[in-house]
Design a protein that fits this description.
The complex is a heterodimer of chains A (312) and B (392). With 312 residues, chain A is α+β, with helices and mostly antiparallel strands. Chain A contains twelve helices and seven strands. In chain A, helix 6 links the parallel strand 3 and strand 4. The longest helix of chain A has 29 residues. The chains are: A alpha+beta (312), B alpha/beta (392). At the A-B interface, helix 3 and helix 4 of A face helix 12 and helix 14 of B.
């Protein structure tokens, strides 16, 4: 019977591509239904499959003999593997549909449905050293600038880098999230400047200097709005003017390296909670890595908002 | 016999298959294939009824073929009826003789369904009585003698069994049957392709055989004694079986025309004659000797490792080696042989269900050889069977 159970889905799948497997699918079904009714499988399909498998192993007669003798056990093993594989595949499809990556929201691993990894690309820092990951609640040393209404109950913590194309790529989705969940969700931006990216650390420091003039949000948007415009320190000051800020004040702040230690502290905090690259988002205990689509954020946000509602 | 040259005539062997199922269907050599092609390319018309040149050519070729086939079994041309296969030949006799309630038919215990079911039908529909003579290692002649009675109208037995290659003592059977006043029909499907047959000398009343088991295309022949055929009514009737017909009556033609209804398989008939020429060129004695040689080697090498069906002496089994390995399913063995070394063997009951049921066996694996099989092929077959016997 086990052979028919294995054969049925395999032939069913193959019959989508070749007509000859349709007859075999019918045979497998017929064989299975008769066996379930405790009647003999008359088509001989089981014998033919057994002969095909053992016959192809006859160059190694001992293995062929072993396969023949333990064919039922091997078939059960194969069935278990097949079932597990189906479950994992289904899970992968669900994950892709829901999170944009077959392996889940916090994975950057290869996904067959997204072979170029567009939904999971991150910039990694060479200075990243794997340390024992701590929970997100360990983020205590620093705080980042918050977008959205301060009273919102749910906080998304984003570790991003101004020179990272994937952090940039995630920006429209973040905007959409903040608009759709206005009043419910806010976003706290943390600096995780990728060391290999030019002007990454300096951009973070300049953004913090902008906050001295209450213009972090505007400066932040400008840094992302015109990627690649920073080619010298002067460009930071030019950008300040564009944001309606006092160029001199920003220059003074920047040159004094006032926020170097803060940016470094953010980076270390990121490492502490397991950030490997940018962008990485934390929504309570759930992690989203890479520029995932809106529906991925939606799923996690809805879950977390539900939890908040229930705990009231 | 130059095997290397012979094998060049069988293009399918270039595929690397080891064909050991000639008892079911033999391979066809190029001269036969070319002859069939010649019919379709040069004169693909009706025979025996057309006055144009192509039609006359077909008639000429068919009658030449009938002569060739008649000579092959030492019979007269008018005693040769073309059929679809052996099965049709036997059915023709069964229906044309017409049995009455109480008339007895004797068969052997090792009959192909084709020489069992037509008589079972006579039993069911006309009340004929079927007597079965045990035939295991050897045909039980004593029992046969006992079963012969004044009611016995026909003895219809297999000449050489397709199950294990054993033959019945044909001369004794025919002699005893004729002394009893009974007719004799021989199923010669496995005999005619492998040995010289002299129908006249042998004295059988009917002999049915197939062209596709003797290098020919799918076709059959029924030999019948002239005087018997003259008396018999046709089985299947239609075009070509009458001299004249009216709305309420018909005048049957002479034999063999009255038994060959409708347009015939002319390519098949012409191809069969060509196959006979080919066999004659090689020599039936040489072919028989070659088959025995292969069978002897296999028997010596595999005896004790497999359960052989039939007598141990290879000479008594001709070109057939039928066996089982432990309790393994014969179909599985055949499947493994096919997959591992492209060895084509038959498995199952070989249409002799009655014998297997009587002996409580599921079936067997049957390797059957012919002129194109080599000793090397037989050795590969033995190696694979040994592996299965040892490791499965």
């Amino acid at each position: 019977m086990v052979l028919c159970i294995v054969a049925l889905p395999v032939f069913l799948l193959l019959s989508l591509f070749s007509v000859k497997y349709r007859r075999l699918t019918k045979e497998a079904w017929h064989c299975l239904s008769r066996t379930v009714m405790l009647r003999k499988c008359e088509s001989g399909l089981d014998t033919r499959i057994k002969a095909e498998v053992t016959g192809s192993l006859m160059s190694w007669p001992k293995i062929a003999g072993f396969t023949y003798r333990y064919f039922t056990i091997l078939s059960w093993l194969f069935l278990i593997l097949l079932t597990a594989s189906f479950i994992l595949s289904a899970q992968g499809v669900y994950n892709y549909w829901q999170y944009g990556n077959c392996n889940g929201p916090d994975s950057t691993g290869f996904c067959v449905f997204d072979p170029l990894g567009e939904n999971s690309k991150i910039s990694t820092s060479q200075s990243c050293e794997l340390v024992e990951k701590e929970p997100i609640t360990a983020l205590t040393n620093t705080t980042g600038f918050t977008f959205g209404e301060p009273t919102a109950e749910l906080t998304i913590i984003e570790f991003g880098c101004y020179s990272c194309p994937y952090t940039l790529h995630a920006q429209p989705v973040i905007q959409e999230v903040l608009e759709k969940y206005k009043g419910q969700v806010k976003l706290e931006f943390r600096h995780f400047p990728i060391t290999t990216h030019p002007w990454a650390k300096e951009s973070a420091e300049a953004a913090e200097c902008a906050q001295d003039q209450g213009k972090f949000a505007e400066y932040h948007q400008l840094l992302f709005a015109e990627p690649g415009t920073i080619k010298s320190e002067e460009d930071f000051f030019n950008l300040a003017e564009k944001a309606g800020m006092d160029r001199g004040k920003l220059k003074e702040c920047y040159l004094s390296q006032k926020y170097t230690s803060l940016v470094e502290a953010d980076f270390q905090e990121g490492l502490k909670v397991g950030v490997q690259g940018t962008p990485t988002f934390f929504i309570n205990n759930q992690t989203i890595v890479g520029p995932k689509p809106f529906k991925t954020f939606k799923k996690v946000i809805e879950e977390e908002l539900d939890k908040i509602t229930k705990t009231r | 016999m130059n095997l290397e040259e012979i094998r060049k005539d069988f293009p399918v062997l270039e595929k690397g298959i080891i064909y050991l199922d000639s008892a079911c269907m033999s391979l066809r050599p190029l001269p036969v294939i070319n002859k069939i092609r010649e019919y379709y390319e040069q004169y693909p018309a009706c025979g025996g009824r057309s006055q144009y040149s192509l039609g006359k050519k077909v008639t000429e070729e068919v009658e030449k073929s009938r002569k060739e086939i008649a000579e092959f079994i030492s019979a007269k041309e008018k005693e040769i009826i073309f059929t679809k296969n052996t099965t049709e030949g036997i059915n023709l006799v069964a229906h044309s003789l017409g049995f009455r309630p109480g008339e007895e038919i004797i068969i052997s215990g090792k009959e192909h369904n084709s020489n069992l079911l037509p008589w079972l039908k006579q039993k069911e529909e006309h009340g004929a009585i079927l007597q079965v003579i045990p035939f295991d290692q050897e045909f039980n002649l004593e029992e046969f003698q006992k079963k012969l009675s004044r009611k016995t109208r026909l003895v219809s037995v297999v000449y050489t069994s397709n199950l294990d290659g054993t033959s019945i003592p044909i001369n004794e059977v025919i002699k005893l049957a004729h002394e009893n006043g009974s007719l004799v029909l021989l199923d010669g499907a496995q005999a005619v392709p492998h040995q010289k047959i002299n129908a006249k000398k042998m004295g059988a009343d009917f002999l049915a055989f197939s062209g596709h088991k003797m290098l020919g295309p799918s076709s059959g022949v029924l030999y019948g004694r002239e005087e018997l055929l003259r008396q018999m009514k046709p089985f299947i009737v239609g075009g070509g079986t009458v001299k004249d017909s009216h709305y309420h009556s018909a005048e049957w033609d002479e034999s063999p025309a009255k038994f060959e209804a409708g347009l015939q398989d002319y390519a098949g008939v012409i191809g069969l004659a060509e196959a006979i020429k080919y066999l004659k060129k090689i020599g039936l004695d040489e072919i028989h000797e070659h088959e025995i040689l292969l069978n002897k080697m296999m028997t010596e090498r595999l005896s004790g490792k497999v359960k052989l069906l039939g007598p141990l002496a290879a000479e008594k089994r001709g070109g057939i080696f039928s066996f089982n390995i432990k309790e393994l399913d014969p179909h599985l063995i055949a499947g493994v042989l096919d997959k591992s070394k492209k060895i084509a063997v038959r498995s199952g009951a070989h249409c002799v269900h009655s014998w297997f049921n009587q002996h409580h066996l599921k079936g067997s694996v049957r390797a059957s050889f012919y002129l194109y099989n080599t000793m090397e092929e037989a050795k590969i077959f033995c190696e694979e069977v040994e592996k299965i016997a040892q490791h499965f």
